[in-house]
Each structure stands twice: as C-alpha cells, then as structure tokens.
Amino acid sequence: MPSATIISDVVRTVEATPAEGRLLIAPERLDDAIGWELKPQGLCREDTCVPVRDRAALFQGDDLDLSAVAAVLGRPSVIDAEGGIAALAMDADGRRQALDSLRAPSFGLDDLDGNPHRLEQWRGQKKLLVAFASW
Amino acid sequence: MLIDPNHLLTELYAISNVPTVIWIDEDDRIVRPNGVAFGTDMFKDFTGVEAGPHMDAVRRWVRGGELPIVADEARRAVGDLSSDEVLARLHFRVAAQARRRGDDVTARRHFALAGELAPNDFTIRRATMPLVGGDPFGQEFFDLYQDWQRAGSPYHGLSASDAT
Q1: Does any CB of chain A come closer than 8 Å to the CB of residue B134?
Q2: B23 touches chain A (CB under 8 A)
Q3: Which of B33, B78, B97 has its CB closest to that of A7?
Q4: Residue, of A25 and A91, whose pLDDT is higher
Q5: Main-chain phi, psi angles of B120, to 5 degrees
Q6: What is the interface size between A and B, counted as CB pairs within 8 Å?
Q7: Closest Cβ opposite residue B62 in set A92, A96, A126
Q8: Which one, of B41, B67, B43, lies nearest residue A135 by Cα?
Q9: pTM (predicted TM-score)
C-alpha cells in the first residue's frame, strides 16, 4: 500500500492511494491522517463534530477523498497525489477569529535537540515570540 | 530555540517577513502583534530600524506592564492572510517536504506556485531562494526587495515606524 505525508499542525505519514490527482484514504485511517474521524454525526475530533451534508461526496469508491474532507472542514488544501504529499491549512474562520480575539494561537514545535514544546507550557509568564530565519 | 520547518507560525500569526516579534502576555493574549524588530543594529543602515527603542519598550512591558499599543489597535494591526497567501504556504510546505525526500522536480514546481501566489511574501520568496540553489543575500533578494517596495511594501503587522 502506498503512503503519503500529510502536513497540518503536525506531520503524519499514512497509507493513501493516489488516484487522478486525489489522495484516497480508508475511512478507518482518517484519524491517523488528519486527527479527525468520520462518524454518523459527521467529521469529529474529540468533542467537536462538523456535520456532513453530502456524505457520498466525500467518497471515491470505498475510500475518502482527502481534498473533499478538507473542504468540509473549511481547511484549504494542496494535494500532490503522485508525490504522496498533502498540506492542510487550519480552518480559515478559526484563523480570523484568533486574530480578532488576540488570543495567541496554540502551536507545538521541536527545539534544536528534538524536544517538543507547546506555547501553553509558558502560560503565566510574559513571552516574546521572536520569529527569524537563517536564510 | 524552536524550529519551524513547515512555517506553521507564518499561517497562525499571519507573518509575511522576519524578523518579527510578537508579545504574548501571561494569559496567552497577544498584546503587541507582529512587528519588525531587531536584536542589534547590524542591518540598521539597510532597514532603517534601530534595535534600541524596541528593546526599551520590552523592558517597560516586563518591568511595569506598559504596552505600546492598545487592544483595538493591536486587533487592526495584522491583516488576515488572503486565500492566495494561505495556498502559497501550503505549496511551500509540499515543496519543502518533496525537497527533504530528494524530489527536486516536485519541490521546484510547488516552490514556483507558492511564489506566484504570494509574490511579496518574504517567508515564501526569500525562504525559497536557498532551497533551490539561490542566494538569499544576492541579487535576486535585492530584486525582490525592489519589487516589494514598488508594490507599496505590503506587510502583515506593525510597520517599522510604529513597531515599538
């Protein structure tokens, strides 16, 4: 079974099949791929579910079309099916709301030694987030 | 020091050039959004931005809680990314991943698409240069800088003149 790397808030590699520019994922693999599951009530992650009006439109045969799933979640996507790579943005409404609310968006990144860190670990302290590039 | 190989922060915080500094308070609220700031005066002659005023403002915030900008101004200071700018970030991530795999053909195609979608975004255009064999301090950078100035110096965040 071919695999694909899916980049969203984290990077995951899962079984996926390229088909005419689409990446197809077995429904039971969706959670591994993007952290969401297809349930009777919709696409769900923890306590949040997004209703799916046209469930059939998510499918190509027995598998889920990743771009269709991303669209239902309101997340722009770029799929390179033949290259086995996909990137999903965060949902557009969520990003706008975060900017409007001035709530610092949560993120997780590794340090130089590969240790994971999250913004929340410094809660209770003032933080300077300095973004720079080595170019 | 954290590493952001997929430029997630440029999407989450609408960052279009670096260095940029964001002040986040004890409750994880942004109290001073993206803004140009430097730690030293190494590039002062080129950028026109001195490091001192920002560093002084940081000290006043840390010691006395003084903020250089009120919440309403902070809210308006960072324009949201356009849909093209979001797509550019996604193409950049696909390109960077392809490059890590050694698939230069796929990488170059997506780097090019990213640059077309966000022609004035340094986190896309300048960041691409060293990844495709270019020189981010060479003529192509100065050409980009000139094009950016001609376009009105578009920037997501506080400008250099009001960054403190």
Answers
A1: no
A2: yes
A3: B97
A4: A25
A5: -110, 20
A6: 150
A7: A126
A8: B43
A9: 0.94
Closest in B58, B89, B98 to A85, CB measured: B98
How is residue A89 annotated by DSSP?
P
Q: Which residue of A has its CA nearest to B22?
A: A129
* Chain B residues touching A112 at Cβ < 8 A: 1, 3
pLDDT at residue B162, as a whole number: 63
Inter-chain touch B13–A131, beta carbons under 8 Å: yes
Asked if B63 and B56 touch (Cβ cutoff 8 Å), the reply is no
Residue A47 lies in a domain: yes
Task: Specify if A74 maps to a domain.
Answer: yes
Number of folded domains in chain B?
1
- pLDDT classification of A20: cutoffs 50, 70, 90: very high
- Structural domain that includes position A37: 3-92
In a domain, A124, yes or no: no
Residues of chain B with pLDDT under 50: none
- Note whether A21 and A29 are within 8 A (CB): no
- Could you give the CA distance from residue B136 to residue A64 in angstroms, rounded to a whole number? 41
Q: What is the ipTM of this complex?
A: 0.94
Give ∠ CA B33-B38-B44 in degrees, rounded to 5. Answer: 130
Best B10, B20, B29, B90 member to test A by mutation, with max A CBs in 10 Å, is B90
End-to-end, the C-alpha distance of chain A in Å comes to 37
DSSP conformation class of B38: -
